[in-house]
Design brief:
The chain is an all-alpha fold. The protein contains 10 helices and no strands. Helix 4 packs across helix 6. Keywords: DNA-binding, Transcription, Transcription regulation.
């Protein structure tokens, strides 16, 4: 798990900001990108349990100190790697049914990626053993829940969705269903696809039936 192939070195020339947002020099986005790219390569190659911050730093061409300025440890770093782009909703189409299907497909694509499949079991285990880590990770999704609440309000005003639809449960249903669907399909479809587009349509129809007026 050493070497630096695939990732351009990114030396830490700035103080950065710690995981809790401590004051310091501006954080260098090039280092963030190099570290996340290195972590993605290594977690697929070696698995989550064997992944180390030392190996990530070496491949990224930086130092463990630079990593600790940004993340409290391996679990938070890997969480950012896997879920960073899921902390916001895809753009709205203006129609609840279309938005719902888009969210389901995005969740399936996330859980079907090699990085997520390699990282998720170990990440979940670490979160289960560390309530404070779990709290910090969950806090990263606050924006998604807030945005979904706003969309549900608009959908209620349009007469598409019931007023008592719960955004928290909706995200749990979508995320949990997508994760189980993908992780149970070890070999994928005959064409190698790790999730079924028809399944996404069926889940969207099922969820819509539960929330529509």
């Amino acid at each position: 798990m050493s070497g630096s192939r695939g990732v351009a070195p990114a030396r830490d020339t700035h103080g950065g900001v710690g995981p809790e947002g401590a004051a310091g020099r501006p954080r260098d986005a090039r280092i963030d990108s190099a570290v996340l790219a290195a972590a993605g390569e290594l977690v697929v190659e070696a698995g989550y349990q064997k992944l180390s911050l030392a190996a990530i730093a070496e491949r990224a061409g930086t130092t463990k100190t630079a990593l600790y300025r940004r993340w409290s440890g391996k679990a938070e770093l890997v969480h950012d790697l896997v879920f960073a782009h899921m902390t916001r909703l895809p753009p709205s189409s203006g129609e609840a049914a279309s938005d719902l299907r888009t969210m389901i497909v995005a969740a399936c694509e996330l859980f079907a990626s090699p990085v997520t499949r390699a990282a998720l079991p170990g990440l979940i285990a670490d979160m289960s053993a560390d309530p404070e880590l779990a709290r910090r990770v969950h806090a990263g999704f606050a924006g998604v829940f807030d945005a979904l609440r706003e969309r549900l309000v608009v959908a209620v005003e349009r007469g598409e969705v019931r007023g008592d639809a719960d955004p928290d449960r909706l995200i749990e249903i979508i995320g949990g269903s997508a994760m189980l669907h993908v992780l149970m399909r070890r070999g994928g479809n005959a064409d190698g696809a790790m999730f079924d587009e028809n399944w996404a349509d069926r889940l969207a129809a099922l969820v819509l039936h539960g929330v529509m007026r």
